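Work Package 3 (structural annotation) set out to generate three-dimensional models for the target panel prioritized at the project kickoff. During this period the team completed the workflow that converts sequence records into discrete structure tokens, so that structures can be stored uniformly alongside our sequence database. As a representative example, we reproduce one entry of 211 residues exactly as it appears in the project archive.
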Amino acid sequence: MSTHQLTGKSNKKPISQVLLLNCGIAGSLVFITTYLLFGFTTPHFDTLRDTISSLELVKNGWLQQANFILFGIFIIFFTIGLSKELIKSYNAILIIIFQFCVALGLIGDGIFVYEPMHTTCDIITFNSGLLVMLLFTWQFYKNSDWKGWIVYSIFSALLMMALLAAFGIANKNHGLAGLYERLAVLPRSIWSILLISKLLQGRTLKKTASN
């Protein structure tokens, strides 16, 4: 029996909260769709080898710059919605801080096209995303509504790290860096979309004893 069934209360969310949470899904889908379509339609651009950020340096590269910035803005709105789902705790504060760091890193990627600032923003974005998933494991602890999500979150973080390591090696050796980078984006994006979907269905992130 879930938490909202035990309390007998409805977890129906106000429309403003629904919109804020949906920004997390919309942001991911718009970002991924945009860089894939832009890459496929850009002459001489190799999606398997060229990085997402290199789209900022091609003709009409402002499109990818805007894509990074828009994604960051979407994440800011999502983070505001997420903060309303978390009970006040030190762990929750850290989650919100690192979520904002993800957004700021993405916006920085759109503003700072050249090195070293661009790579710095990349590092902030990816590392903050990893930390958010790991911090969320505590939110799922002893909560029957989120059975299995501790393992899933850790697995997603480890998979993301492995793909980022593969990306770094491929990028240094002129290999399939673009492929590994695009794959590295997916574990966090899928994790976020599934998390948001569960929240929209009425699940709560409040820490409760298991049944």
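Residues 15-40 form the longest helix (26 residues).
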